[in-house]
Amino acid sequence: MTRTIHVHAEHEYEVVIGCDWQATLKHSLDSYTRVALVYSSAMRDQIKEFKPDNTEIHYFEVSDGEGAKTSQSLQSLWNWLGAAGFTRSDAVVGIGGGTITDLAGFAAASWLRGIDWIAIPTTVAGMVDAAIGGKTGINSDYGKNLIGAFHSPKRVLIDTSWLTTLGDRDFAAGLAEVVKCGFIVDTQILDLVSGKNLADIRADSVLVQDLITRSVAVKAHVVGSDFKETFGREVLNYGHTLGHAIEIHSKYSLRHGEAVAIGLVFAANLAEVKGLLDLKSVQMHKQILDRLGLPTTYPGQAWQHLYPLLALDKKSRGHQLRFVGLSAIGATLRIEDVNESELALAYERISS
Ligand SMILES: NC(=O)c1ccc[n+]([C@@H]2O[C@H](COP(=O)([O-])OP(=O)(O)OC[C@H]3O[C@@H](n4cnc5c(N)ncnc54)[C@H](O)[C@@H]3O)[C@@H](O)[C@H]2O)c1
């Protein structure tokens, strides 16, 4: 069954979940003369099957993974849009994981100061996170996602059949963001995944679609109330403060979702150290994430490197570190008055 969720951002747009991407995309292209399909080599066979009747399609293949989010790929995409004569009545379609939708969205945001784009996410992380919310961008030599723009898509088309070919590691990493949505807002997500491992979830397509729908609803609601990230949207960063530091420390050898999984258990422990959250809720974090096969610990000796990296978090103000925490499952709060020994204690509890 197809479900549609409306996102209210700088314009309203639909996220269509459970659709057949080819059929739905054909109907979404009527108003455009030319369309650029941006995809990675991993998607080549499926993309080349797509042939709408009345729209001129241009196929643009980019490097896989983070290799797509470079200034070089963006430059070639701009040159290629220029050579093909793309105008304001044309559109870009990004088909792939979060790396591809981030690049395609930013190319659309910057070409002629903004043309339409459509996101077709093909990973769990892309479906529940990257394609929703209008953040687009590329990496710079100084860090990930430092160059970008807020530019919401015209539509997001989620066809869960893409997920059959997704590797277990990427699937589980995407589920970390799903579970995060359960901890911060929709606690039914936790009931749905509780006691299940990755294979149980993958085998149940109805459950997968339900989890994706619920997570999209959480993100759509939060983004709709705080598009440009003042405070409301920060709740989506639950688990991300330590998670980002771990990504940098591990030199991106961990998937984003894997680092976030560790960060979620850390954030729960921090709230417990501050006397805000009970121990049972902390244990629940670890149990659910462990069962999904996600990492929940990190080497103890890494703390001396991670602590300075926490200050780079975008939620920091001056010298003050700020964390998203919980006072109960499904109830977020901001943790600001935190000192180094409390942080070290919370980290000790997740140390391997
Ligand atoms: N814009 C945002 O709000 C936002 C939010 C979260 C993450 N992101 C960005 O998203 C990126 C991570 O996204 P990701 O986890 O989707 O990674 P990804 O795009 O690198 O995809 C992971 C891997 O899965 C492969 N893949 C994609 N779809 C597949 C499929 N259906 N079958 C088989 N293989 C498939 C890709 O080729 C790649 O090798 C990061 O760059 C991150 O910064 C952006």
* Overall structural domain count: 2
Our Rg estimate from Cα atoms comes to 20 Å
Shape assignment:
globular
- Please count the beta strands (DSSP E, at least 2 residues each): 11
Proportion of strand residues: 15-25%
The CATH class of the largest domain turns out to be Mainly Alpha
Task: Give the oligomeric state.
Answer: single chain
- Compounds present? nicotinamide-adenine-dinucleotide
List the main descriptive attributes of the protein structure presented here.
single chain; about 350 residues; alpha/beta; Rossmann fold; Dehydroquinate synthase-like, alpha domain; seven-stranded mixed beta sheet; two-stranded antiparallel ribbon; 11 strands; binds nicotinamide-adenine-dinucleotide
